[in-house]
Structure formats: C-alpha cells, structure tokens
Write a structure and sequence with these properties.
alpha/beta, 139 residues, single chain, 5 helices, 5-stranded parallel sheet
Length: 139
C-alpha cells in the first residue's frame, strides 16, 4: 500500500505526565496545508488530569485504563480506529504513558490491520530525550 494513504504516527513514551503534555503540545503544531492532528492517550483513564487545550485542529481520545499488554488488543484498536475514522487526521500522536510496555504496542502497529492505515515514523522516549521543546516530526 502506498505510504500516502497511511496516517504518519509518532509514538511518545516515558517521562512524567507533564513532560508528555509538553511534548504533545509541541508535536501538535498545525500541519502545513491544514489537516487535524489526532492524539490517542493509551492506558490513561478517568483519574488522569485533563490535557491542556491544544487548539481546534487537535482531536484527543483516551484508550482504556490498565496495563497496555492487556488493553492493546480489541479495546486499543477500537479506540484507535474510532479516532482515525472520526477525525481523518494528517498526523497521529500516540501517548504510550510511562513506556513500560512499548514493545507490545509497537507490535500492534506492525500487525496487518493497523499497518494498512498507520505508518509509525518514529518513537520519542522522554527518558532519553527529555527536552520536549526540541521535538519535531521526522521528515
């Protein structure tokens, strides 16, 4: 399948919640030529602080509470496909939380059904790259 048909996705993990909010804000700058940016906050739930307002071009959705290894299957896919269908984004940011189970989610993105609609263009681990203000989308 041609890459232009797939939504470029950046996986974000590590750091504290405020670090990830700052990174999401930086990565959510408007896309040249318009288009929305979708943000999926995986493994977060109703007891998580609300994210700061990011602008009308950003659509944010939360996936289920719990361990990513347990929620990476059907619940994660339903949240992701619902977000992609509703917002038809130009870009996707997936907040994987602390990053304890990143390999499980990366494997999900390589599965046949997700690989047809999403192209992972990179992963940012805020434990190894803590400066959220310096983040940019890969070219």
């Amino acid at each position: 399948m041609e890459d232009k048909a797939r939504v470029p996705a950046l996986l974000l993990c590590g750091g504290g919640i405020e670090d990830r909010y700052a990174a999401i804000a930086r990565l959510s700058e408007p896309v040249a030529g318009g288009g929305s940016i979708a943000v999926l906050r995986a493994g977060t739930g109703m007891f998580t602080n609300e994210a700061p307002a990011l602008g009308p071009h950003v659509v944010m959705k939360r996936s289920a509470i719990g361990c990513l290894c347990c929620t990476a299957g059907v619940v994660f896919r339903v949240a992701l496909f619902g977000l992609l269908h509703a917002s038809r984004p130009a870009r996707l940011i997936v907040d994987l939380g602390s990053g304890a189970h990143v390999s499980t989610l990366e494997a999900e993105f390589q599965s046949e059904s997700l690989a047809r609609v999403v192209q992972v263009v990179g992963r940012v681990d805020l434990e190894t790259k803590p400066e959220a203000t310096a983040l940019v989308w890969p070219a």
